Amino acid sequence: MHSIHDALTWRFATHAFDTAKKVSDTDIDAIAEAGNLMPTAYGLQPFRIISIADDAKKAKLLEATYGQTHYVENSHLFVLAIRTDIDAAMISEYARRIETTRGFSEGSASAFEDMMLGDITNRPQDSLPAWATKQAYLALGGMIAEASLRGIDSHVAEGFMPDAYDEMLGLREKNLHTVVIMAVGYRAASPLDEQRKSAVKVRVPKEEMHIKL
């Protein structure tokens, strides 16, 4: 692919993956890192990216994915899960990471830390999951684009049982909660996907979507 535009034009929501063709570890790492590099509010990244390659582990998720086989019969399944422990300790950890990564003196990010803490603690606490989910979706966009640029198919969904995913993947004890999943792999020859591959994308005309003021 020569551009994200070309890659996203090529992409469609694949319903049948060739289970014999596996995405390389290098490509899986690159897709996850694209999500890691996407911008988020303050750079806090209140989520984690989980990849599942093991077919047996994916098979256990079939019922929690309402029997949709393309989410278990694929190369890898990505699970994006938001943090449920968005608190002072998390913000402090991030401030120290800034100092360490950029070679700043200890405490030099304290003013930024206080500003973040003031914002987060002043928000209604029941609004934090929705806020964190927005950040996770920013990462998801980068992951979709990176996969498409590499010629890797994907299918994204919210149609699953998040609490069941949390339980089966042991996410609760990691202070994580599933919000969206993305199956990746290589498209198989299926009547539905052959039709989708040749179909013209249906989108709002660009003149309507892009409002110039």
Automatic annotation (TrEMBL):
Recorded family membership: Belongs to the nitroreductase family.
Superkingdom of origin organism: Bacteria
PANTHER family: NAD(P)H NITROREDUCTASE YDGI-RELATED (PTHR43673), NADH DEHYDROGENASE_NAD(P)H NITROREDUCTASE XCC3605-RELATED (PTHR43673:SF10)
Protein name in the entry: Nitroreductase domain-containing protein
GO molecular function, one term: oxidoreductase activity
Species assigned in the record: Candidatus Kaiserbacteria bacterium RIFCSPHIGHO2_02_FULL_50_50
Coiled coil regions, renumbered to chain: none
Keyword hit for NADP: yes
Domain Nitroreductase: 9-186
